[in-house]
Amino acid sequence: MCGIFAYLNYLVEKDRRYIINTLLTGLSRLEYRGYDSLAVNGDKENEFLIFREVGKVAALRAKIESQSTLDMNKKFLSHTSMAHTRWATHGQPCEKNSHPHRSDPNNEFIVVHNGIITNYKELRTILEKNGYLFESDTDTECIAKLAKYIWDNHAKGSKPTFTTLVKAVCKELEGAFAIIVKSTHFPDEVIATRRGSPLLIGVKTQKKLKVDFVDVEFGGAEAPAAVAQPKGNSLLAPINPSHPPMQRSQSRAFLSDDGMPQPIEYFLASDPSAIVEHTKRVLYLEDGDIAHIDEGELHIHRLRRDDNMSTMRQIQTLEMELAEIMKGSFDHFMQKEIYEQPESVVNTMRGRVNFDTRTVTLGGLSTYLATIRRCRRIVFVACGTSYHSCIATRAIFEELTEIPISVELASDFLDRKTPIFRDDVCVFVSQSGETADTILALRYCLERGALCVGITNTVGSSISRETHCGVHINAGPEIGVASTKAYTSQFIALVMMALQLSEDRISKTERRNAIIDDLCRLPQVIKETLALDNELKQLSRESLVKQASLLIMGRGYQNATCLEGALKIKELSYMHSEGILAGELKHGPLALIDENMPVILIMTKDSLYPKVQSALQQVTARKGHPIIICNTNDSNIPDKYRTIRVPQLVDCLQGLITVIPLQLLSYHIAVARGVNVDFPRNLAKSVTVE
C-alpha cells in the first residue's frame, strides 16, 4: 500500500543534498506503492520544508532541484526527515492529498501514514466542531489535527511528553496504520508506531553496537481517552493533564564501548528494500509498539501492556542484497523476476529436498507435523495470486494426505465468519506477509484455537511472527506489483508441505518419488520454457494486443493456471480476461465463443486430456480459433492450430510450467500497449488495508 521512509542522523554530519537524495532513493525503492512527497528540516529553528508531487520519484526530484532558494549544501550534525509514497484510498491523487499532513500552518505536528483510519469521519467531525480546519480529503490529516487538539487541551505548565501524546492519539484511532510523527515542540525527535501495517527501523553506527536488542518500556496507568463522545451539546472532554508520563528506561538503547552516545543513523521504512543499501541491521516493530528516537537513543514503548508480548525487540540482519532489488540489464522488474524463476525455485527447495534419498524436510513445520496429520481438515486462506497457488496445490494435498482441504479467499472467509475449530489447521499464504485481510483471518483463527501455519516470502513479516509455524518461500525480493516468481515458489512450498505430510504413507511412495524427481528437473525445464520468449512476443503483437477480451480455459490441475494467467493479463494490460474451468463451458461461457473471441486452451497430457479435447471440439465447432498450450511431445494436435509447446512434467507440477507463457504474454501485451508494467494503475504490491 502506501510507503513510508524516514532518515535520522545524530552526531553524523550530512548536508541537505545527501539527506534529500537519501529520501528520494528510499522512495524509489517503494515507488511501486504510489506517488511521492517528503519533509526535511528548514534553515530556521523548528522549520520544516515540505515538498509534494503527484507522479513518480523523478518528478519530485525535479521539483526539489528547481527550488533556487534551497541551500543544498547546508550541513546538519543532527537531523530528522521523512518521506512518503501514496496509494490513494481517501481523496484523489493530487498535491493537497499528498503526505506529510500537518496540524496547522505552523507545522506543529506533521504525519506520514500507511493504512486506513476507519473512524476518521467521526474524528474529523468532532475536530471541525472545535475549530480545526482541514486542508485535504484524506483520513491521515485527522491524526495530525488530533495531536494538536490534545496538545492544546493540556494545561500550559503540564504538557505531555511526545510518547504520551502519540499514545493518546493512537488510542483514538481505529483501523490499520503505520505512522511517523514529527513536531516543532520536540525538535530532532521522531515517533514511529504501527498497528496492522509493516514498519521497521534500520540502525547504522560507526562502531559495533554494544547490545543487539532494545528493551520494551511500559508506562504506569493507562492514559484516559483523548476524545470523548460529546454528550448533549457539550464539547469534547479535555484530556486529563495529570496522567504520569511513560517511564524511560535507565539505560540507553545503544551505547559505544565507553558508555557514551555514539554517532548513529536510523532508517525507518515500510519495506526492507528501502533500507538494505544503507544497513542490514534492522529491528521490526510489533503491533502496538511506539518507537521514540531522540538524541541518538531508540526507546520502544507499548501502547498497552500485553503479558504475551516479548519485552525485547531483537536487532536482525537482512539477508537480501542491493543487487536483488535492481533491474540490471532487464527493462522492467517484472521481466527480471520472470527470468529469475530457475534460480528462485532452487532457493525455495535448497536444503529442504534431498533428491538422492527422495525426502523433504521443512524445518519450520517439524514440531507440528503430528498435529497437522491428525487434524480434522486443512483450511487455506489467501488473496489474489496467493489464493491461486492454493487452488493449484489443493488436489495434490488431498491425494497425498487424504485430509479434507478447503481453500478460502480471506475477505470472504471473514465476511462469512467461517466456523473454525481447535482441531483445524489453517494455512495463511501471502508474499509480503502483511496482507490485511489475510492477517485479520489469521487472528480470527488464532482466537478459535486452530493451529496456524504461515507461508510467506518476507522474514519478520506479521504473518511469519504471528503464526505458530510456517515456511519461508525464499523467492527473494519481488518488486513488480504483478507477482510471478512468488507464485511459483509458493506453489513449490505447498507441494513440499504435502510431500512431507505424506512421508509416512507407504501407498503414496511411488507418487511422491515421481514428484520429487520432477522437482529436480524443474529449473532446467523452466529455462527451456523461457526460451519461448521471442515466439510469445510475436504472438502477443500479432494476435492479442488489439483484442478487448481473452478467455483462458483448462481443467483439473490447470484450472489455477487459467485463473492466474487471466489475473496477470488484467493487472498488466488492462484487457478483460477470464479464467474458465473447461468443464463448465456448456454452463454459460460457450455463449461467448465466436470467430472473434480469442481463446487460450491449456491441454497438457494428464488424466483429463480427453475431456479437454472435448472442450477444444466445442470451441472449434463455434468457429473459435484457440491458441493451445500443450506438451512438446504431443503429436495429436492438428497443424491448423497455433500452439505453445512446453516440456512435460508430472501432472501436479505441470502448472509451474504452463503459467510461464501466460506471464510472458501478459508482459508483452502490456509493453506493446505502452502501459507501466511494474506499476499498474490503481494497484499496490502489498495490500495492507481491507
Overall description:
- The protein is of the alpha/beta class.
- The chain folds into 3 domains: 3-323, Glutamine Phosphoribosylpyrophosphate, subunit 1, domain 1 (4-Layer Sandwich); 345-530, Glucose-6-phosphate isomerase like protein, domain 1 (Rossmann fold, 3-Layer(aba) Sandwich); 531-690, 3-Layer(aba) Sandwich (Rossmann fold), CATH 3.40.50.
- The protein is built from 18 helices and 28 strands.
- Residues 32-36 and 220-252 have low confidence and may be disordered.
The span between the termini is 11 Å
User: Could you say which structural class the secondary elements and strand pairing correspond to?
Assistant: alpha/beta
CATH topology of the largest domain: Glutamine Phosphoribosylpyrophosphate, subunit 1, domain 1
Question: Can you summarize the main beta sheet?
Answer: 8 strands, antiparallel
Instruction: Give me the CATH architecture of the largest domain, please.
Output: 4-Layer Sandwich
CATH superfamily of the largest domain: Aminohydrolase, N-terminal nucleophile (Ntn) domain
- Helical coverage, percent range: 25-40%
Overall radius of gyration: 27 Å
Strand order of the largest sheet: 3-2-4-1-11-9-12-16
Total DSSP helices: 18
Q: Beta-strand level of the residues, as a percent range?
A: 15-25%
Strand count: 28
What's the mean pLDDT score?
Answer: 84
Integer tally of domains: 3
Instruction: Write down the overall geometry.
Output: globular
Would you identify the regions where 5 or more consecutive residues have pLDDT less than 50? Answer: 32-36, 220-252
The CATH top-level class label of the largest domain: Alpha Beta
